[in-house]
Amino acid sequence: MIECVINISEGRKLDAIDEIKKAIGSDVLDIHSDFHHHRSVFTLAGTSASRRLAELSSQRFDLREHVGVHPRIGIIDVVPFVPLEMSTFEQAIDARNEFAEFAASELGIPSFVYGPERDLPEIRKRAFIDLSPDFGPKTAHPTSGAICVGARQILVAYNVWLKNATIEDGRRIAREIRSPQVRTLGLQLGSEIQVSMNLISPDEVGPDFVFDEIAKRAEIARAELVGLAPARVLAQIQKTRWAELDLSKEKTIEWCLATRNRAIQNLD
Length: 268
Known about the structure:
This protein is α+β, with helices and mostly antiparallel strands. It folds into 2 domains: 2-151, Formiminotransferase-cyclodeaminase, Chain B, domain 1 (2-Layer Sandwich), CATH 3.30.990.10; 156-255, Alpha-Beta Plaits, CATH 3.30.70. It has 8 helices and 10 strands. The two termini are 20 Å apart. The mean pLDDT is 96.
């Protein structure tokens, strides 16, 4: 099974997001939408749903109308393919390249690839400056921009809100806890300050570790898991802490896949 975790640059038109979810069907394992990030994260099972999501999003949304705190280069901003059990990284790379070819030929949207060649932060820094798209047109699509299409291992997206903090505090803490295993941003979301993170190696550095590191530096208001986490990450954390860390078995990849599979079997 290949998982695809697509980040769409639209987090406010929730009716449209829900319509897209219904059009895709049971392959949608989870959706997380955020108003201030102006972003929706779709966790999908398999590879076919990614094309349908890209097609519908390019038709419904316009990058020229987008204002949000999260960095982006396109409406279909990030499309990572992730190998789960019984799948290989090579299969994820094949799925990545096939999607990028589809986006170029069918949607006319250029794609920058990441994985063994480069990482996602490098694309954010260099796209259309000294780095040309790997697939498709050499200029951005007028309404959809471009796509970062990747192959990667499982990561955990995680946010922590601070109490009585300034944006300078958020940025400082983000810098201090940043590492090869933890990518961070300090963001202002309305009147609140958030440390937004991607835990690149969640088996080594999990939500409990970054939560505690932030707690050493500031008072925490709340935490949030974005999307799903692998069950093995939860297994390493005391169950008594799950609620504090916004974790639960229902928010694991395995739980959602099992729920999807039961639904498919019932339809048969």
